[in-house]
Specification:
single chain, alpha+beta, 3-stranded antiparallel β-sheet, globular
Length: about 400
């Protein structure tokens, strides 16, 4: 079994064991952190952080794709908590240029629930290099005319979400800070986080694990694909198919074109995020670089009613509104019920999904989430995988182990 490093409190050893088993079957590395009742009970890592085979270190950062959206949402909720905006404010109230193209009725709540119909990145840009340019991306989105008015059904804004919500955050902050600086000032520094970046400073680039995306995340050792893993994957595929059938019953047709429009930026390759230019850029739906312990601590604050270690980042009232279920139907891009909150979804777990849980998973297998019922948070960072929730089940297995441990410990 692959050896993992770090610390594990008594009663939570199965979480580390699951990570070790996963590292045996992958060609990359990973880190897991779990907080329970405000205490860090698991903080482990292992595997390789690059193609050269260098080991994953305690301070290794990993680009976590859509897991970034949960961090972005948390910042927006903090701005609401301060009275700088409301969820039902028109976006154009704070970003006047956004009203162009008939978007004056789109609200902040529409952005957070993926119902604004501004998901199409495929026709928004000419080449993926433009994703590194904040001003260009927000200008193009402000000029955009959506294909239809906001709808009750969600269409996952896989890439555009970040600039839409991120620019609202910058506008209401009102002091000219970059999005990267806001992340540091409002979350990383107050919570004493050792690695939470959306736009990585040059001096931290050596900490970032190389993305090794492509192929089966369990493909390094085909013999490792045992019966239990096949059964787990079959269950997720069955859930997706059931979701599509349910959607059709209520008049929502899953659309593969919407998937391509939302996900496939021209010329974009996940490994392009390894470049210095992309690391420096802020893409608040895509390129957050985190340690697992930083993600887990942020979600631990949310699981604990908005505070941890005497630092409050959200009031309980705002947190309750931000994390209640807003969308019950199947998403038009991701063919399962995501149970969208405001910027978070209900996590997938290979067990019964805790009804009040919330967080965000990312392409490649990463994720972070909170379970208020147990005052529990879980985070996984990786540099190799194929996707979530049906292509890569590692975060779901980690979550199941963490839930069982928390229930045993009471």
């Amino acid at each position: 079994m692959e050896r993992v490093q770090g610390t594990v409190e008594k009663g939570y050893g199965q979480v580390a064991k699951v990570l070790a088993e996963q590292l045996e079957q992958t060609h990359g590395g990973a880190a897991v952190s779990v907080y329970h009742k405000g205490r860090k009970v698991v903080d482990v890592w292992g595997g390789r952080r690059d193609r050269a085979g260098n080991p994953w270190e305690q301070d290794t950062l990993s680009i976590s794709f859509s897991t970034t959206k949960g961090v972005t949402a948390t910042l927006l909720h903090m701005m609401v908590d301060r009275g700088l905006l409301g969820y039902d404010d028109p976006v154009a109230k704070h970003w006047p240029e956004f009203a162009e193209g008939g978007k004056d009725a789109i609200t902040v709540r529409h952005l957070l629930t993926h119902t604004a119909n501004l998901y199409d990145v495929r026709s928004l840009i000419d080449h993926a290099d433009q994703l590194n340019d904040w001003e260009e991306m927000t200008r193009r989105l402000a000029q955009r005319t959506p294909p239809r008015a906001p709808t009750k059904a969600s269409t996952y804004h896989a890439m555009t979400y970040g600039w839409l919500v991120g620019e609202v955050i910058r506008r209401v902050a009102g002091d000219g800070r970059t999005f990267a600086q806001i992340v540091q000032d409002e979350l990383a520094v107050p919570l004493s986080l050792d690695g939470l970046f959306v736009g990585v400073p040059d001096e931290h680039h050596p900490r970032v694990a190389e993305l090794l995306m492509g192929g089966d995340p369990f493909g390094a050792k085909k013999s490792g694909e045992n019966k239990n893993k096949k059964n787990d994957r079959a269950k997720m595929i069955a859930r997706a198919r059931k979701g599509m059938k349910l959607a059709e019953k209520v008049g929502i047709k899953y659309d593969t074109r919407s998937f391509a429009d939302a996900m496939m930026a021209p010329g974009f390759n996940p490994r392009s995020l390894n470049t210095p230019e992309s690391l420096r850029a802020s893409m608040p739906a895509v390129n957050g670089a985190f340690t697992a312990r930083s993600l887990a601590k942020m979600y631990a604050a949310l699981a604990g009613g908005g505070q941890i270690d005497g630092v409050r980042i959200l009031s309980e009232e705002t947190l309750q509104e931000a994390t209640r279920r807003h969308i019950k139907t199947v998403d038009r891009v991701i063919p399962v019920p995501m149970n969208w909150r405001l910027g978070y979804h209900q996590p997938f777990v290979l067990a019964r999904r805790p009804p009040r849980s919330f967080g965000h998973f990312g392409f490649g297998g990463s994720g972070g989430w909170a379970c208020p019922e147990r005052n529990l948070s879980v985070a996984l960072t990786v540099n190799s995988g194929t996707g979530s929730p049906w292509g890569d089940l590692r975060i779901m297995r980690i979550g199941r182990a963490a839930l069982k441990a928390a229930d045993r410990m009471g």
